[in-house]
Amino acid sequence: MEPRPRSFYALAVFFALFLLFLYGPTITIGILSFQGPRGGLTFPMNGVSLYWFYDLFEEQPVGDIWGAFRRSLALGLLVMVVTVVLSVMAGLAFRRHFAGATFLFYLVIASLIIPSILVSLGVGLIFNIIDWEVHWSTSGFGSQLTWTLPFGLLIMFAVFNRFDKSYEEAARDLGASPWQTVRHVVLPIIAPSLIGVALFGFTLSYDEFARTLLTAGSYNTLPLEIFGMTTNVTSPVLYALGTMTTMFSFIIVGTFLGLGYFMRRRRSKLGSDAGKGMV
């Protein structure tokens, strides 16, 4: 076996330092969340316990943590569903050229390069001008869609660019209607990619701060609530909250990845069974 070049070890060290830089703050917060009852916000730790996790479930003197969590969860799910539906519809529409397609595409993508705080400010001003209530479920929902929809559309473009149209042609030759072709052929094939769009939609919404800052109204989402707590809470309960929200994010990501893996396995098994039946 030939010895590995020195560049390999240099890249390995660089990658390890990159991971430490990327996840170091999160790991630090996770460690400090296990401070003892008299622990502070910095090292050295004063004991080890689950005290601050228990305290998190008690009534807090400042903020509404669990109300903010429920709002972020509901908003994330709503944004996820709408992002998936609109992304699929747009992906199907852009498969054929139509007047204004290029302009519409750049119009959607433009929201990615506009500073998020300006989007939040603009949406909030529009709602104030037309005398609509600024609320997390209306203006906050709309401002977050400007962030999630471009990602969903780009994913659908990549999916449909490599989609084999012969499957649709075979379905139409067998008498399937356009809707039946989409429902029974197209959607099952692109289902794993829809899981990715859903994951993007939920996580981007759940963690979004800037685009929600001026559009959430009187009720904070979880990122806004955590930001508000940083100016008032001076105990490791803030770290416990950060650890729990991080674990929740990992659980959501793992659930979506597991669902995608299950769907790919199921599709492979169906294809294998169909091949055996033909033989």
Describe it.
The structure is a single chain. With 279 residues, this protein is mainly alpha-helical. The chain has a domain of 170 residues: MetI-like (MetI-like fold, Orthogonal Bundle), CATH 1.10.3720. The protein contains eleven helices and no strands. Helix 6 crosses helix 8. The longest helix is centred in the C-terminal third of the chain and has 42 residues.
Characteristic terms for this protein:
single chain; 279 residues; mainly alpha; MetI-like fold; 0% strand; globular
Low-confidence stretches: none
Largest sheet: none
Question: How large is the radius of gyration?
Answer: 24 Å
Proportion of helical residues: over 70%
Give the termini distance in whole angstroms: 44 Å
Quaternary status: single chain
How many beta-strand segments?
A: 0
Count of individual helical segments: 11
Please state the structural category: mainly alpha
User: What average pLDDT do the residues reach?
Assistant: 87
The named CATH superfamily of the domain at 63-232: MetI-like
The CATH topology of the domain at 63-232? MetI-like fold
* Name of the level-1 CATH class of the domain at 63-232: Mainly Alpha
CATH architecture of the domain at 63-232: Orthogonal Bundle
* Percentage of residues in DSSP E strands: under 5%
- What characteristic shape results from the CA principal axes? globular
H and E string: HHHHHHHHHHH
